[in-house]
Amino acid sequence: NAGVTQTPKFQVLKTGQSMTLQCAQDMNHEYMSWYRQDPGMGLRLIHYSVGAGITDQGEVPNGYNVSRSTTEDFPLRLLSAAPSQTSVYFCASGRTRSTDTQYFGPGTRLTVL
Amino acid sequence: AQSVTQPDIHITVSEGASLELRCNYSYGATPYLFWYVQSPGQGLQLLLKYFSGDTLVQGIKGFEAEFKRSQSSFNLRKPSVHWSDAAEYFCAVANGGATNKLIFGTGTLLAVQP
Q: Nearest 5°: CA angle at B105, between B32 and B114?
């Protein structure tokens, strides 16, 4: 198993540009989540999904869009990038919503100029 | 609202010394608690977790943590630190018991002196 994979590893955008951060898992996990990590703030939940076709907002959803058309993939879209979205983004997946481990991907480091 | 506090932003220990990283949580019911480690430029690796039962939890790499309900704490310990333990450590709690919605502390950066 590859586990949770994320692409790209690094990305630089200009303000106003759009892009999609990719996340895929090959463990047949129903639950997937996106977090952002900022210095001194730990990780904060952006959006999450409990299965194909079902998504919901986390703590910091503004400026981000998600969809879940398959069990394997959970892309995160930035519609109009802002410097405040400069961060490291982590995708995670898990088999259930309780008593289960969340497995994290390696992260995408995004810089918005 | 639930929250996690890691009071120590940065800790330095000597190699071979013991380590304790503090974590306090705020949650009314029995929490699901986690410790993750992040090496520089890497993703997060689960060290250990607590859901119920024995309050002393053993994890990987020789780490353990003790859940103390009376103190709302879940401190991470290691009896003898190795240079390879230098990393950032995050405590997390499952929001409303949902492990797919973790609330993280701000992290403790561990430096190990030779």
A: 110
CA A105/CA A48 separation, integer angstroms: 14
State the average pLDDT over residues B7-24. 97
- Mutation test of the interface with chain A: which of B4, B10, B102, B109, choosing the one with the most A Cβ atoms within 10 A? B102
The band of B88, judged by pLDDT with boundaries at 50, 70 and 90, is: very high
Chain B residues whose CB is inside 8 A of the A2 CB are none
pLDDT digits (tens, 9 = 90+) for A52-89: 999 999 999 999 999 999 999 999 999 999 999 999 99
Q: Residue B31 carries which DSSP code? A: P
Q: Do B99 and A44 touch (CB under 8 A)?
A: no
Contacts of B101 in chain A (CB under 8 A): 33, 45, 48, 58, 97
* Eight-class DSSP state of B35: E
User: Any idea how long chain A is?
Assistant: 113
**How much is the pLDDT for A97?**
67
First to last CA, chain A: 36
Chain A hits for B43, CB-CB cut-off 8 Å, are: 90, 104-107
User: What string of DSSP letters covers A49-112?
Assistant: EEETTEEEE-SS-TTEEE--SSSSB--EEESS--GGG-EEEEEEEESSSSS-PPEE---EEEEE
Of all residues in chain B, the one with the smallest CA distance to A43 is: B104
pLDDT at B39 over 70: yes
